[in-house]
Structures are given as structure tokens and as C-alpha cells.
Design goal:
heterodimer
């Protein structure tokens, strides 16, 4: 069980690393949200794997569901923002969002 | 072994979602990664998390992504950095190497964590996490209100770029 937890955590680190790479290097706003989504997947996996290893799977699942619900609200709001920004700038490029630049 | 393959599939489809040129393919890769994650949850006996992962993340979020991509389709061609196909494999290899070294060090050091809990899922959710549920309902309402506020009709026609009043 302990080794399985370490294996899971290794892949959680890979998932979160991939998501952070996406957030740091990509320029398409929708793709940035995909990065956020990948990080959320890593966090959910970490919660459930830790719960399974510790024997408190039910508590871990309830926390994972909380993460998923918050994630949905964040993604819905962010996609609405992206669509509105796209109407103004006619682009999905994050570098075009310079209207607040001093 | 099957668990390892599922984890590899999860990471592989996540990477495909990041690197794919077409946004639609990225969204579908993300959904496939969610299905892999849900199967992992089912194999861990985390049935409720698995059902949520399939229905909400693989279903609802994918629909939201595809809707947003369809609405912004004409402007979706953003020039990404050309070096990403070189930089990402290097980054990923370094990350995997560090990951393997750290996890190998941890292998014998963490004691087995066994602390069995009692009660069913609904007991834990409704009795222990009651306050979280109130917060979740608040988050859902905040999300709905935010989307409504962002899409409200203000009488002005959409699609027009705002007039530039400031001096460049």
C-alpha cells in the first residue's frame, strides 16, 4: 500500500509539473485553462491516493468532490471571461491583454 | 501493472492535451485523461470520486471547453512558441528524473499509514463535512452569478471593439 502511494505521488508530481509548464509557456488562454485542469487532476489524484493509503477513503473522496466542484465553478467563470475578452480583442492570445498596462 | 499503465495513460493524454496544436483535440485528450483518472479511482474503491470525475470533469467541463472553443473558433490560431517541442521533452525528462530520485529516497522512509475510518460515505459527507457543503453551494452560486454577470445583455451590440478614447 505504501509503495502504491509513492507510485501515485510520483505521477501526481508529473501531472502538476506538466500543468505548471503549460501555465508558464503557453499563450492561448484556453490552453492555460487546460493547464489549470491538469493541475486539478493531479490534486484530486493526490487526495484520493492518500485517503486510500491511510484508510480514510470516504473523507478523501468528499474532499476530492469539493475540489471538483470548485474546479467546475472556476472553469465556467474563466471560460465566460475568455469569451468576453475574445469579443473585444478578437484573439485568444494572452499577450494581447495589455489594456491595463501602465 | 494495470495501475501503472493507467497512470501512464493519464499523464500521456494530459501531455497530449498540452502539446496538441488543435484546441478541440486538446479538450478531447483532457476528457480521455479524466476517464483514465476515473478508472484509477474505481480501482481504488473510490466510487463516488470516480463517478464525479466521469460525469462532471469528463462530461460537463469538456462540454464547456468545446462550447468555448466553438464560440472563439475563428480566433483560435495563436502562435505558440516554436521551441516547445524541444523544451517540453527536456523539461519533462528533468522532472521525471528528479521525481524518480525523490520517490526512490522516500520508498522505505514513510511508515505505513493505516488508520481505518468507520462510517459510510454519506455519513462522512453529511456529518463531518457539513460546513464544506455550505461552502460548495456558495461556490456554485458564485459561479452561476459570475457567468450571468459576464453574459448579461447591456443593450449594446456585441462584437464591436470598444472605442479607443485614450491616447496611445
Amino acid at each position: 500500500m505504501n509503495n502504491l502511494w509513492i507510485l501515485n505521488m510520483g505521477f501526481v508530481a508529473l501531472l502538476i509539473g506538466t500543468g505548471i509548464y503549460c501555465l508558464l509557456t503557453m499563450r492561448n488562454t484556453v490552453r492555460l485553462l487546460i493547464g489549470v485542469e491538469i493541475i486539478a487532476k493531479g490534486v484530486t489524484l493526490a487526495l484520493v491516493a492518500s485517503g486510500a493509503a491511510r484508510g480514510s477513503l470516504m473523507l478523501a473522496q468528499s474532499l476530492a468532490i469539493t475540489v471538483i466542484v470548485v474546479d467546475v465553478a472556476v472553469i465556467a467563470t474563466a471560460l465566460a471571461l475568455i469569451i468576453n475578452i475574445n469579443r473585444h480583442t478578437k484573439s485568444l492570445d494572452v499577450r494581447k491583454l495589455t489594456r491595463l498596462k501602465g | 501493472m494495470l495501475h501503472l499503465l493507467l497512470l501512464i495513460g493519464l499523464v500521456a493524454f494530459s501531455i497530449l492535451a498540452v502539446l496538441s496544436r488543435d484546441l478541440l483535440k486538446s479538450a478531447i485528450s483532457l476528457a480521455v485523461a479524466s476517464v483514465f483518472l476515473a478508472v484509477i479511482f474505481f480501482r481504488m474503491n473510490a466510487v463516488y470520486a470516480g463517478v464525479f470525475e466521469v460525469s462532471v470533469v469528463a462530461g460537463l467541463i469538456t462540454v464547456l471547453f468545446i462550447t468555448a472553443i466553438a464560440l472563439t473558433r475563428q480566433d483560435s490560431d495563436v502562435a505558440e512558441s516554436r521551441r516547445r517541442l524541444v523544451v517540453f521533452p527536456l523539461f519533462f525528462l528533468a522532472l521525471a528524473l528528479i521525481d524518480v530520485l525523490v520517490m526512490k529516497e522516500l520508498l522505505g522512509r514513510i511508515p505505513a499509514m493505516v488508520n481505518p475510518e468507520s462510517g459510510t460515505f454519506s455519513q462522512v459527507l453529511w456529518n463531518q463535512r457539513t460546513f464544506d457543503l455550505v461552502g460548495q453551494i456558495g461556490v456554485i452560486f458564485a459561479g452561476v452569478l459570475a457567468v450571468l454577470a459576464l453574459f448579461r445583455e447591456d443593450g449594446k451590440p456585441h462584437g464591436d471593439a470598444p472605442k479607443e478614447a485614450d491616447h496611445e
